[in-house]
Amino acid sequence: DEYVWFEGIPFPFVNFPPEHLRNVKENFVLKDEDVLILTFPKSGTNWLIEILCLIYSKGDTKWIQSVPIWERSPWLETSNGYKLLKDKEGLRLMTSHLPIHLFPKSIFKSNAKVIYLFRNPRDVLVSGYFFWTISNLVKRPESLEQYFEWFIQGNVAFGSWFDHVRGWLSMREKKNFLMLSYEELKWDTRNAVQKLCQFLGQKLEPDELNSLLKHSSFQVMKENKMSNYTLLPSNLLDHERGSFLRKGIPGDWKTYLTVAQAEVFDKVFEEKMADLPQELFPWK
Ligand code: A3P
């Protein structure tokens, strides 16, 4: 149940041998037609996958109801995901939690479309705490206090949230890069989906968009066994202890962090992110 460290980043599963991660970084070739979903874990990755699948199937639910979500937009850094992606013809939707310094180098010369989804790190922290409490992949945090420390220090899966976001946001001026926050996606999903369609060069009819909004909603996704992770064996995810789709709201951190923790968090955020334009972060 230990982490595997690679170039300063803790990886959670047995699924990430260093030679594989090195190979991905050096040799995976991105194509201009590729569409990438990049996130720090617990930022709404799977929600965005569901939305993109529904964009490409024009609101039709066949795909999302017959193929597990991790096969529709595989994780590049896992050996299984890599295999599915490597020789795939046509549209390649792919997902990654890799920080920019470990990402395939070919991204810097490619016009692949990149969507970086990010979320209030306080909610990422709380969501991560609950996730790691039901997962059997690495050692469980004993308390939220303990996980809070790990998160601030970057000793959680895929490292420091602050470094991850800072690294990827450095790409934000590129025309093939779209930054999207979980909050704007939640507060005005319709508008955010239209923005996504425009970025991807896709067009949806009104009834297709309505179907997309319905089927990617928290409640409907939670019922879809191809998307709610109940197909994962319980030696990986202990379904008795909680659900992958937990609450699906912004601001839930206020229920869990103490006033003192919130103050510490504000200070760390300020220290680490002060030089970035603060209007990038919509949750203030
Ligand atoms: P919570 O734990 O706060 O509920 P990821 O997919 O990156 O692991 O992120 C998981 C988080 O996204 C969880 O947050 C999960 O509930 C939330 N999520 C998943 N599907 C969602 C949806 N359709 N709408 C809103 N939030 C969703």
From TrEMBL:
<keyword id="KW-0963">Cytoplasm</keyword>
<dbReference type="InterPro" id="IPR027417">
    <property type="entry name" value="P-loop_NTPase"/>
</dbReference>
<comment type="similarity">
    <text>Belongs to the sulfotransferase 1 family.</text>
</comment>
<dbReference type="GO" id="GO:0004062">
    <property type="term" value="F:aryl sulfotransferase activity"/>
</dbReference>
<dbReference type="GO" id="GO:0051923">
    <property type="term" value="P:sulfation"/>
</dbReference>
<dbReference type="InterPro" id="IPR000863">
    <property type="entry name" value="Sulfotransferase_dom"/>
</dbReference>
<feature type="domain" description="Sulfotransferase">
    <location>
        <begin position="32"/>
        <end position="276"/>
    </location>
</feature>
<dbReference type="Pfam" id="PF00685">
    <property type="entry name" value="Sulfotransfer_1"/>
</dbReference>
<keyword id="KW-0808">Transferase</keyword>
<dbReference type="GO" id="GO:0005737">
    <property type="term" value="C:cytoplasm"/>
</dbReference>
<protein>
    <recommendedName>
        <fullName>Sulfotransferase</fullName>
        <ecNumber>2.8.2.-</ecNumber>
    </recommendedName>
</protein>
